[in-house]
C-alpha cells in the first residue's frame, strides 16, 4: 500500500503588488536571477510556458562547474496572479499561491517531499530559494 507523500510548506511576504511578483516569478529573465539556494549556485538558463499544460525547465548549477541539474515539470493548473500547480518529472506535485495583501504579496509553496533527503533539509533549500526570490523582486 502506497502512502501519500509528506507535504512541506514554505512561505514569504514580498513588498510588491501581485502583478510584479507574478511577472518576476515566471519570466525566464527573472528566474535566472533568483532560482538558486545559495550564492555559490546560479541558474544559467530557464524556459517557462506558464499556462495549464505548459512546461518549464530551469538549470541550476554550482558556479564552480562541479554539479548541475535541470528542474522541470508540467503545469496542471494556472490561474494568473493567483495559483500555479505543477507536476515535477519525478511525479511529485507543487502548489504555489499568490495572495495580495494591499501593497504586499504572500507567496506560499506546498510541495511533496522526496524520499532521499530529510524534510528539514528540503524545507530549508526551498525556503532559501524563496528568500532569494523575495530579495530579487524587492530590489528590482
* Global Rg: 15 Å
Number of discrete domains: 1
Provide the structure class: alpha+beta
CATH topology: Alpha-D-Glucose-1,6-Bisphosphate, Chain A, domain 4
User: What is the percentage of strand-forming residues?
Assistant: 35-45%
What ranges have pLDDT less than 50 throughout 5 or more consecutive residues?
A: none
Provide the CATH top-level class: Alpha Beta
Global shape: globular
Percent of residues in helical segments? 25-40%
Characterize the biggest β-sheet. 7 strands, antiparallel
Description:
With 140 residues, the chain is α+β, with helices and mostly antiparallel strands. It has a single domain, classed as START domain (Alpha-D-Glucose-1,6-Bisphosphate, Chain A, domain 4, 2-Layer Sandwich). The chain contains 3 helices and 7 strands; from the N terminus they run βααββββββα. The protein has a 7-stranded antiparallel sheet with strand order 1-7-6-5-4-3-2. Strand 5 and strand 6 form a beta hairpin. The protein is globular. The mean pLDDT is 94.
Identify the notable features of this structure and list them briefly:
alpha+beta, 7-stranded antiparallel beta sheet, 26% helix
Amino acid at each position: 500500500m502506497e502512502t501519500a507523500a509528506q507535504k512541506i510548506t514554505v512561505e514569504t511576504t514580498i513588498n510588491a503588488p501581485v502583478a510584479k511578483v507574478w511577472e518576476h516569478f515566471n519570466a525566464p529573465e527573472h528566474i535566472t536571477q533568483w532560482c538558486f539556494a545559495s550564492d555559490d549556485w546560479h541558474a544559467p538558463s530557464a524556459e517557462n510556458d506558464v499556462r495549464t499544460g505548459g512546461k518549464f525547465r530551469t538549470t541550476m548549477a554550482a558556479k564552480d562547474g562541479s554539479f548541475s541539474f535541470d528542474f522541470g515539470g508540467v503545469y496542471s493548473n494556472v490561474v494568473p496572479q493567483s495559483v500555479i500547480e505543477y507536476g515535477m518529472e519525478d511525479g511529485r506535485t507543487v502548489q504555489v499561491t499568490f495572495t495580495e495583501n494591499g501593497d504586499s504579496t504572500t507567496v506560499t509553496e506546498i510541495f511533496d517531499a522526496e524520499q532521499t533527503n530529510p524534510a528539514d533539509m528540503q524545507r530549508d533549500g526551498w525556503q532559501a530559494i524563496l528568500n532569494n526570490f523575495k530579495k530579487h523582486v524587492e530590489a528590482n
